Amino acid sequence: MAKTIQAIRGMNDILPDQSPAWQFVEGVLRQVAASYTYQEIRMPVLESTDLFKRSIGEVTDIVEKEMYTFDDRNGDSLTLRPEGTASCVRAGNEHGLLYNQTQRLWYMGPMFRHERPQKGRYRQFHQFGIEAFGMEGPDIDAEVILLSARLWQQFGISDQVELQLNSLASNEARARYRDALREFLRAHEDQLDEDSKRRLDTNVLRVLDSKSPETQQVLENAPKLSEYWDDESRAHFDGLCQRLDAAGIKYVLNERLVRGLDYYNRTVFEWVTTELGAQGTVCAGGRYDGLVEQLGGKATPAVGFAMGIERLVLLLASQDKIPATQTVDVYVIALNEAAELKAPAVAEQLRNEQQGLRVQLHSGSQNMKKKLAKADKSGAEYAVIIRDDDFEIKHLRDRDQVDRSAATIADVITLVANKEA
Ligand code: HAM
């Protein structure tokens, strides 16, 4: 036998028994996005490598070590998108969607990062993302957070997620804080983990993210970002908190929340759960007022988030919040060879009579007992047996119901649709 070929590590198939959960989740995401009047945008999965270098930042984990980058046949450097924000801004600039106007956009699709795979962390994963452009007030930060909060509510997992908030303030304020933090950490360099030592020069804010207990210990006495907030950023943050309070959204201030992508300023937030082990961030985002201009557009404020759909599906499954689905309504069986010839046409007529009715036609010529066993296994509500001149309708889920006969397809529909015969 030929050697079988396996999927690439960290890239998952979503199998037929999992896809109903995905469809359920995607349906809710679409519906909630629409209820806030966000419109879908679909971007390509491949972009020029420069796009991500210029937006996410050269000295970030994503750009330094996680991108799937290759030269195409023309010698151009391309990258499989590691996230959607950069592509969304690129598309907005390219098609004039952002110039002097507001946009509320959402997207959903695969992203690619060469990370070490584990539960909740994959190399191909899926994000649902929201991006709002052209609005600078804290009301729109509140809107995107409320949208995410509505999702948890709709899914019934509000108690399983916690909102963490911070402000990265203005670029100038952050630069001053960076200097102060670097100076402080230099004085304790020998107590820092290797990664953090390296980040002192390259991306000192990420030291705040360090998982090392020793580094975290040092950080206890480090200067705080909020001590460096500029007045406008503080007012913006207060404005956001007031709106969240008024809407009854709970949050905690996490001064060490800095995010792993360089484009953020002011508001940053993450929704975190303790139910998924190490990969507990289900949704993350913030404001990125400089990115549109940085990528060649006119200066345009923006805010958004992305959630990991795999993590959301895992969280929902852990809380038993994925509704059971049925894929077959009616299972069609032929009683004999003559009926077998009519069976495909009968199944078609059933689908014609009632739009959306899910009809599975039995294939193969086993005996009736086996056919009925298959009908039962399909999960169908009814088996329709085609006899010589009429049909027999069997209730597969409710054995107390008596089997009925029907003379025509219309009668069959009346019975399976539970209407009065
Ligand atoms: P991010 O924090 O890099 O932000 O990713 C957002 C979410 O995507 C994470 O919180 C997580 O749920 C999911 N995620 C990230 N990497 C993986 C992975 N390897 N496997 C599974 N899930 C993963 C962004 O991507 C920003 N573009 C978010 C944003 C939009 N900010 C503003 N607008």
Q: Would you kindly provide a written description of the structure presented here, covering whatever features stand out?
A:
With 421 residues, the protein is of the alpha+beta class. The strands form three sheets. An eight-stranded mixed sheet has the order 1-5-6-11-10-9-7-8. It has a five-stranded mixed sheet with strand order 13-12-14-15-16, sandwiched between helices. Helix 1 (19-35) runs antiparallel to helix 5 and helix 12 packs across helix 14. The protein has helices at residues 19-35, 49-56, 61-66, 85-94, 138-155, 171-186, 194-202, 213-219, 231-246, 291-294, 309-318, 337-353, 368-377, 409-416; strands spanning 39-40, 46-48, 68-71, 77-80, 103-112, 124-133, 162-167, 252-253, 265-272, 281-287, 302-308, 330-334, 359-361, 382-386, 391-395, 404-406. It folds into two domains: 19-170 and 230-318, BirA Bifunctional Protein, domain 2 (2-Layer Sandwich); 330-416, Rossmann fold (3-Layer(aba) Sandwich). Bound molecules: histidyl-adenosine monophosphate. Histidyl-adenosine monophosphate (HAM) binds at residues 83-85, 113, 115, 120-122, 125, 127, 129, 131, 260-261, 281-286, 288, 304-308, 310-311. Histidyl-adenosine monophosphate binds at residues 83-85, 113, 115, 120-122, 125, 127, 129, 131, 260-261, 281-286, 288, 304-308, 310-311.
